Amino acid sequence: MPNAILDALQLAFFMFWEVLWPLALGFLLSAIIQTVISKKTIIKALGKDSVKNLSLAAGAGAISSSCSYAAVSVGRALFRRGATFTNAIAFEFASTNLVFELGLILLVLLGWQFLAAEFAGGILMIGVLAVIFKYTLRSKLLSEAKAQANKGLVGKMEGHGDMDMSIEEGSVLSKIFSARGFTVISHYFFMDGYSIWSDLLIGFLIAGALAAWIPNSFWNAFFLTDHPVLSQIWGPLIGPVISMLSFVCSIGNVPLAAVLWKGGISFGGVISFIFADLIILPIINIYRKYYGKRVSIYLLVTSYIAMALAGFLIGLGFQLLGLTPTSRNVSAIFSHPEWNYTTYLNLFFLALIGVMFWRFWKTGGPAMLSTMEISPEESEKLVSDPVCGMKIKSDGATEKVDYKGKLYYFCCSSCRKVFEKSPAKFV
């Protein structure tokens, strides 16, 4: 038994080591884009259902955080502030299926075909979901969703929904390379990492255990690999169900996808499995809090249909084009760390992470993270940072300013400094 556990842990570490640098690079790119693009600008463009606005919602999601819980929180925030329900949900789907870090990890673990299929399938899935909403989402159900959303019940990672630390003044390069830009990038980087660390950990551990303990013969029988036609249908149908039961979301399900692919699930099944991080049971429960019981069931059913259908169509399309991978050998599962480009890139990004952590720590980052997950009772006692909108605890806050006899509290020194330069703009 101890040897079996060690084998599982070893395989989990091997996979993590292979994807460390693309994961860090993806977080960095996401943090940079969130620094230069304001969430306020996004909200203004999502108040009407149209192909153009749906595309903007998907684009906005693609450049945001990859955390599924954060995506759901931001989606509700967009809905409450004027975005249509369809655009808010499209933002969520893009935020978990079209982001940089997901694509980079897919590329490293599974290859370019999976990267291409994920992005093409993600766009297709959002389109399918928008069509389903157009013809099945009744005004009564939409009114229920709006009324429940406006109650503001707390789900998970609420800080993402409230925060907008983007820099509005100056050129793109000045935003990125300024002292404030460095601070904001470090905060977004660790906020996104904090959001998904548990899902990543669970995902790698489960993947390591499945790779070490479950024989391929079991997976081959379960995925009907001896029946080529049936397996192409069965894979996209069962993929989302496995994802739901795994409780793993965000990019933490990519290592599991690699194990399932090695075990024999169809190409379309892998894609639908990755899509399904937004219908795992904890998120369905958050949907219930955000939009009500009936709407949460509606989202579960319509999302499953869109995920399974998109996975099946992408699998079929890639097969017809001759692009489906023929090898099921996932080398990253069994690759031992060695002195190659992966190790050198990992060491470089570990050093970069260390520098950013120093900046994050020195500019009030830990205090900001402390309010990312709060209870409803605690939420009522919080105040809003006038610069970024983050909900923070006034008791014990170190960053505060007395302006015209009133105290204003800030999540970090960066927001405080911005306020001090032009307080009238934020009051």
Description:
The chain folds into 2 domains: 2-362, no CATH class; 374-427, no CATH class. Helices cover 70% and strands 3% of the residues. The protein has 22 helices and 4 strands. It has helices at residues 2-36, 39-44, 51-62, 68-80, 85-97, 100-109, 112-136, 139-149, 158-162, 172-177, 179-213, 216-222, 228-246, 254-263, 267-275, 281-291, 293-320, 331-334, 341-362, 365-369, 376-380, 413-421, and strands at 383-384, 391-392, 400-403, 406-409. Helix 7 (112-136) crosses helix 17 (293-320). The termini are far apart.
Q: What does the secondary structure layout of this molecule look like, with pairings?
A:
Blueprint: H1 2-36, H2 39-44, H3 51-62, H4 68-80, H5 85-97, H6 100-109, H7 112-136, H8 139-149, H9 158-162, H10 172-177, H11 179-213, H12 216-222, H13 228-246, H14 254-263, H15 267-275, H16 281-291, H17 293-320, H18 331-334, H19 341-362, H20 365-369, H21 376-380, E1 383-384, E2 391-392, E3 400-403, E4 406-409, H22 413-421
Antiparallel strand pairs: 1-2, 3-4
Query: How many strand segments?
Result: 4
Bin the helical content: over 70%
What spatial form do the alpha-carbon principal axes imply?
A: globular
Spatial order of the strands forming the largest sheet: 1-2
Low-confidence stretches: none
Class inferred from helices and paired strands: mainly alpha
User: How many structural domains are formed by the residues?
Assistant: 2
Q: What is the overall number of helices?
A: 22
Radius of gyration: 22 Å
Mean pLDDT: 87
Oligomer: single chain
First-last Cα distance = 62 Å
Order of secondary-structure elements: HHHHHHHHHHHHHHHHHHHHHEEEEH
Reported for the largest beta sheet, the result is:
2 strands, antiparallel
